[in-house]
Amino acid sequence: MKGKQVFITGSTQGIGRAAAMELARLGASVTVHGRDAARAESIAAEIRQATGNPSVDSIAFDLSSLKELRAAAQRYLDGHARLDVLCLNAGVFLGKRELSAEGHEKTVATRFLGHFLLTQLFLPSLKASGDGRIIITAAPPNGMKANFEDLDLEKSYGAIKAVTQGMGLLLMAQLEIAEKMRGQGVTVNFLHPGVIDTKLLSQMPWIFRKIQALVGGFPAKGADTLVYLASEPSLKGSTGQFFIKRKPKPYAGAISQRDNQQRAYELGLKITA
Ligand SMILES: NC(=O)c1ccc[n+]([C@@H]2O[C@H](COP(=O)([O-])OP(=O)(O)OC[C@H]3O[C@@H](n4cnc5c(N)ncnc54)[C@H](OP(=O)(O)O)[C@@H]3O)[C@@H](O)[C@H]2O)c1
User: Fold this and answer.
1) 249: CA distance to ligand 1 center in Å?
2) What is the number of structural domains in the chain?
3) Counting atoms of ligand 1 from 1, which one is nearest the CA of 17?
4) For range 202-227, the mean pLDDT
5) What predicted TM-score, i.e. pTM, was given to this entire model?
6) CATH number for the domain including 21?
7) Least buried of 57, 100, 235, 250, by fewest C-beta within 10 Å?
């Protein structure tokens, strides 16, 4: 990974932090991202210290705030000539419905709208790489769906429903980007990390916490396939694929339907324009 530039959203803890550590260990230049500047910089310093790689920096912005994101992304682009790997990893689980700065439901704003805008702003840099890779940390995709009629879950809110909506729209729109970028040196792939013992999982209902306590893996285990997708040379050009434990797996359901992918992409463009 020497000479490669990597940006991982939500890398101050959990799977993103473990992936940042491993990719820095492999020699990549890595940007650690989270909402709090001091925390993001302290994780970057910890990674520099642990790996001996000085090329680890940090940036802080709230992905759910499109205005804040736009300004921060410009700061990043001013300081980095290109980007080889963009990991869309940050996620939230919110027991109560909250709104973003622009008035969207916060899970959807973070997972879908923030990641959509970030991708749009970084696409020229990813194209300049010649082997630009967008990697999404997701969950098993077959049950993912999107309610286009109630984007911000005003009619009925549930934390799991919000994650499904945010992740479903994220995957649909990014799979459309995979199609649009075919042959242009940018690929999009996504993965399920497994059940991993992180803060996010500990905020979920008791049944998930029970599963976490029984089978939850270390964050480094959850980061393994992400690191593989970022670094494996033979994956250059592979796009639109879903991976578990480094292996491509078939997927179906709403996220695989072209009309949904186009609709989510158009929605992302309309809201973030
Ligand atoms: N853990 C699992 O078993 C599991 C299973 C399937 C999929 N996933 C997915 O894997 C991804 C990583 O999850 P994790 O378990 O590692 O979670 P985690 O430990 O809770 O980490 C979440 C990261 O996202 C960042 N973040 C959250 N909201 C943000 C916002 N508005 N703006 C910027 N950064 C934000 C957090 O940063 P700060 O709090 O420092 O700002 C943190 O770095 C998520 O998308 C999750 O859905 C996890």
Assistant:
1) 23
2) 1
3) 43
4) 84
5) 0.97
6) 3.40.50.720
7) 250
